[in-house]
Amino acid sequence: MITRKWLIKASRSAFRCIRWCILLGFCTLLYAKLIEPNWIEINSLQLTLPNLASEFNGYRIVQISDIHRDRWMSPRRLKRIVRLVNQQKPDLVAITGDLVTRNFPQLIPSLPVSLAHFTPKDKTVAVLGNHDHENDTQAIIKAIQQSNIVYLGNDIYTLKRSSAMLHIAGVDDVQMGKSRLDLVMQQLPKEGAAILLAHEPDFANTSAATGRFDLQLSGHSHGGQVRFPFIEPPILPPLAKKYYLGEYQVGKMFLYTNRGLGMTGLHLRLFARPEITVFTLLSAEC
């Protein structure tokens, strides 16, 4: 028999449970809003590329992606990112798109103030993402070039060590219909390792099918940005649903999808920390 005393006890237990759930939710929201977005993870990987010449053994590439310059991604935060990247002592810095969040063209001129301070031994290279094309695309390209960054929109940049070559290629944004892999392939020499920058990771099925690229570097997914335990996959954008997080092998090509540094939407991150990735390339010849 259900008594009045039992009902009071059950009500108090339910109230305590609700109170703890509200407190947990509030703490999780604070963490996702204030802590994790600023808690940058530096991931280091070693990759052996079969076509990499011994002259490039130990070559260090630092990848960043999805900066999403907006009111949250302030010049102060961007300068901190540049400082962290430079501390990794990169030979090359690769930026894989979405430098500016859509509908923030007024912030584009501020990019060179920070991006011009990367200090790789060789170069900084960049491609655009879908958000960049929803801004003033030409203004972003101009800001990239003013920052002494090589813009790789359907183009290649070749590094040389004596007669050895390492090709860094880039396709313009796939989602926005701007990619021209055919133009990249026309320019790409048959000799030397080749790395492709492509904002959307699911483009790897197409790039790997060429048999020419050793590695593709991508972003776009934010690693899901907000991920809940035991719920996979998270909500993901188009062309980032298959290869949305970390390292993959697609055919004979490596793929790495960086979680990015900025945010869109509610500006929350949960179990998807912002990321700087450091690749040390190894030659199979060594």
Structure description:
The chain has helices spanning 4-35, 75-87, 111-115, 130-133, 137-146, 181-187, 204-209, and strands at residues 41-49, 59-64, 92-96, 123-127, 149-151, 155-161, 164-170, 193-197, 215-218, 246-250, 253-257, 275-283. It folds into two domains: 1-38; 42-283, Purple Acid Phosphatase, chain A, domain 2. 43% of the residues are buried. The strands form two sheets. A six-stranded mixed β-sheet has the order 1-12-2-3-4-5. The model has no long low-confidence stretch (mean pLDDT 94). Helices cover 27% and strands 24% of the residues. It contains seven helices and twelve strands. With 286 residues, it is of the alpha/beta class.
Order of helices and strands: HEEHEHEHHEEEHEHEEEE
Residue share in β-strands: 15-25%
Helical residue percent? 25-40%
Q: pLDDT average, as an integer?
A: 94
Number of domains: 2
CATH class of the largest domain reads Alpha Beta
CATH architectural category of the largest domain: 4-Layer Sandwich
From the 3D structure, determine the CATH topology of the largest domain.
Purple Acid Phosphatase, chain A, domain 2
Q: Cα-atom Rg, whole angstroms?
A: 22 Å
State the secondary-structure class.
Answer: alpha/beta
Number of strands: 12
The major pleated sheet works out as:
6 strands, mixed
- Categorize the overall geometry: globular
- The CATH homologous superfamily of the largest domain corresponds to Metallo-dependent phosphatases
Low-confidence stretches: none
